[in-house]
Amino acid sequence: MQVILAEVRGFCAGVERAIAIVEMALIKFGAPIYVRHEIVHNRHVVERLRAKGVVFVEELSEVPPGSVTIFSAHGVSRTIEDEAIGRGLSVIDATCPLVLRVHKDGIRYESQGREVVLIGHAGHPEVEGTMGRLHGPAHLVSKVGDVARVSATDPEKVAYITQTTLSVDDTREIIDALHDRFPGVVGPDTSEICYATQNRQRAVAELAGLVDVVLVVGARNSSNSNRLREIAEAQGIPAHLLEDPADLDPAWIAGKARVGVTAGASAPDDLVQGLIEALRSFAKVEFSTLPGVKEDVRFKLPPQLA
Q1: Is residue 23 annotated as part of the catalytic site, yes or no?
Q2: Is-contact 41 76, C-beta < 8 A?
Q3: For an engineered disulfide with 12, which of 192, 244, 265, 292 has Cβ 3.0 to 4.6 Å away?
Q4: Which CATH number fits domain 13-96: 2.40.100.10, 3.40.50.2300, 3.40.50.11270, 1.10.3860.10?
Q5: pLDDT at residue 80, rounded to an integer
Q6: What CATH topology corresponds to 2-11+195-290?
Q7: Half-sphere exposure at residue 121, Cβ-oriented, CA atoms within 13 angstroms
Q8: Is the pLDDT assigned to residue 59 strictly greater than 90?
Q9: Candidate list 38, 126, 128, 243, residue with the active-site label
C-alpha cells in the first residue's frame, strides 16, 4: 500500500496559539483554569487539557467569580464579554486573530452605514460570536439559495464577511450571487481569507487526484475537517473522517493501492502518526509526502502571557 501524506495538514497558527494560551495560563496561574466551550474542536485536545486541570464550561455562570477564564479560539459575542466583566472574571482571550479580523471588518462596514451579510454555518461558535459582535441587523447565508432571502433596508449599502473555516472556493458562488443581487456590495479582499483553510483544502483536492481513498483526521464537529472530506468526495474519491486511529474501518482501505491522509486544522499530529501505525498493521506500507505550502505564520500571545 502506498500512503501519501498532505504536507499542509493539522494544527494552524490560531489553534497552536489557543492551546499555548491554556497551557501557559496553567503554568502561570495554576489549576483550575476555566475555558468557555472547547478551546478548539478536538476531543483529544480537550481531554488532554482537562487532565491537566482545565475545566470546560458551556456557560459563564458555571465559573466561580474571579476565576481565570479563557475564551476559545472561535471568539465570543459582546454579550458574553460583558457578562464576564460583570462577574469579575479574569479573562484571557484566545480568539484566533483571523477571527478577530472578521469582527473588525463587520464593525467597520457597520460604521459605514452598511448592513452586513455573514457567510457561514448556523450554530457554529464562530458564527454566533461574530453575529454577536455586530450592532445592527445582520443576515446569515450558508448557501447560494439563501441570498435571495436577504432583505436589506438599503440595497446599495450591503457588505459581506465570511466564517474563517470557509475558503475562497467555498464562498465564491455565494459572493457572486451577492454581487448579482446587490451590485454595490463590498467585502474583504480574498487575501484576508484564512490562509490555513485555503491551504488545507487545496492540498486535499490535489491529494484526491492521486489516491484511491482519502482519510481525514479530525473531529466530527470540526467544520474545516468535514469540509476536507467533502472536497475529496466531490472529486469522486471515497473519503472518511476519523476522530481517532481506532476508528479506521478495514473495509475503507480493502483493495486500495493508494491511500491519502490529511488532518483538519485542530487535529494533533500524533493522531496522524497513530493512523499511520494503524495502516501498517494491514499492509506493507510505502510513505511519501505531497509537497505543499510551508506555513510559517505565528501569532502573538495575549498581554497577560506575553
Answers
A1: no
A2: no
A3: 265
A4: 3.40.50.11270
A5: 97
A6: Cobalt-precorrin-4 Transmethylase; domain 1 (3.40.1010)
A7: 16
A8: yes
A9: 126
DSSP 3-state of 293: coil
Lowest mean pLDDT among 6-20, 143-157, 188-202: 188-202
Least confident of 7-16, 166-175, 196-205: 166-175
Which residue blocks in 209-268 are alpha helix, DSSP H?
223-234, 250-253
pLDDT digits (tens, 9 = 90+) for 183-234: 999 999 876 778 899 999 999 999 999 999 999 999 999 989 999 999 999 9
192's grid cell: 484576508
Q: Do domains 2-11+195-290 and 98-192 have the same CATH topology?
A: yes
Q: How many whole angstroms separate alpha carbon 95 and alpha carbon 281?
A: 40
| Per-residue pLDDT at 170 | 86
Contact 128, 77 (CB under 8 A): yes
**Which one, of 78, 97, 58, lies nearest residue 69 by Cα?**
58
